[in-house]
Design goal:
Layout: E1 2-7, E2 12-17, H1 21-47, E3 50-52, E4 55-58, E5 64-74, E6 78-80, E7 106-110, E8 113-123, E9 127-130, E10 136-140, E11 148-156, E12 164-171
Antiparallel strand pairs: 1-2, 3-10, 4-9, 5-8, 5-11, 6-10, 7-8, 11-12
Length: 173
């Protein structure tokens, strides 16, 4: 609904646009839903998830360069967070802390898999390092009865003739 008001001195037209109740309700619901979604994600992924990382050992005789590491999680077993969620602060005017770059892996869905992808400029030879700088946040779906599952991995690098593929065994407790 639009209301017009005319003020004679000085000549001025003021327009008030008031949302309808159903629009106001939808907007309010969207704001609340978004706020609770972030809180829920924080609770699920930061407080209750399994923090997952693994190690890679370059047993070769030279550095690996421009390394791309991919882990393929079965989407029927796992939920993997796409980001690190911040805890809400007590600041009334800014309830969420500023965004921090955690160097979290890129996480996306590809067919029946959730893929966690990470890049390293180089991996030294004869060195054991973490695959991810920041641990993945993983939840096991509630309908999963299996005691273990496999996660496929793929490693490629500029100076590898062929990429390396394999399986990691994940034991679910």
């Amino acid at each position: 609904d639009i209301f017009l008001t005319h003020i004679k001195n000085p000549p001025l037209v003021v327009i008030f646009i008031l949302p309808r109740e159903d629009t106001l309700h939808k907007n309010f619901y969207t704001v609340l839903k978004d706020a609770y979604y972030i809180d829920d994600c924080y609770y699920l992924y930061e407080e209750n998830s399994t923090k997952f990382n693994c190690k890679i050992h370059n047993d070769g005789i030279e550095f690996l360069e421009d390394v791309k590491l991919e882990l393929y999680f079965d989407s029927t077993f796992f939920n993997v967070s796409t980001e690190v969620y911040e805890k809400k602060s007590n600041d009334l005017f800014n309830p969420y802390t500023s965004s921090i770059d955690y160097n979290y892996p890129r996480v996306y869905t590809d067919e029946n898999y959730i893929v966690a992808e990470y890049y390293h400029n180089q991996i030294r030879h004869k060195t054991l390092i973490d695959v991810f700088d920041e641990d993945l946040r993983i939840l096991i779906k509630s309908n999963v009865d299996a005691k273990d599952t496999e996660v496929k991995y793929k490693i490629s690098a500029k100076n590898l003739a062929n990429h390396i593929e394999g399986l990691l065994m994940i034991i679910i407790k």
